[in-house]
Each structure stands twice: as C-alpha cells, then as structure tokens.
Amino acid sequence: MIKIFALLVVVGTVSAMAQRKEPIVLWPAGAPGALGKSDKDIPTLTPYIPDADKATGAAMVICPGGGYGGLSAHEGNDYALFLNQHGVTAFVLKYRLGSGGLPASVHVAGRCARSAYGAVASRRVEG
User: pTM for this one?
Assistant: First the structure.
C-alpha cells in the first residue's frame, strides 16, 4: 500500500511539473489522403515542455505504438513525462488511425519531424 501511495505521489508531482501544450495540427486544412474530418483523421503533435531549470535543449518525437488500430497512451504521455524529468522536450505524435495505413504514416512522420524542429527553432514551445 505504501509503495502504491508513493508511486501516485511521484506521478502526480511529475505531471504537475511538465507543461503539456495544446496539440499542433500537422495539416490545418486536412491531411493528404484523409478519408474524413473525424479525430482519427487529424494527425497532431503534442509538445511536453520540461521545467526551465531542467531543460537541456534536447527534443525527441515519440510515435506511440498501437498497430494503426489505436494509440498506446503509456507509450506517449508516460514516456514524454519521463523525458521531461530529464530535461528533454518531448513531442507525442497522434497519427491517423483507420485511414492511410503505412505509406500515409511515413508521410505523417516526416511532417511531424519538420513541425517539431520548426516549433523548437521558432521557440513556440518554450515554457
């Protein structure tokens, strides 16, 4: 019981320290090849910013697993929070589900990398 309580305190503290920004829509006018306008057809990139006193200037894009049928939350949010603890800015990609498949996902990954680099370079993701 004490271990569970300690884990909840740590997770709560980490969550409070990290600054999760609003998701960046990768294609505001609609993703190429998207079959609709539902949430699953709109790829986004969510920045997680570490505290300024811990920030190292490093950044990483996280592409959660899920086999194109869903996204594993623990492979996105949890990893981003872990990286924030170590001063790394993390970007979690929400790729398209149900439309596009592998070729579209590769296209999304390229756009994601360019958007993350642009956000860091233009300092849109500073804390």
Answer: 0.69
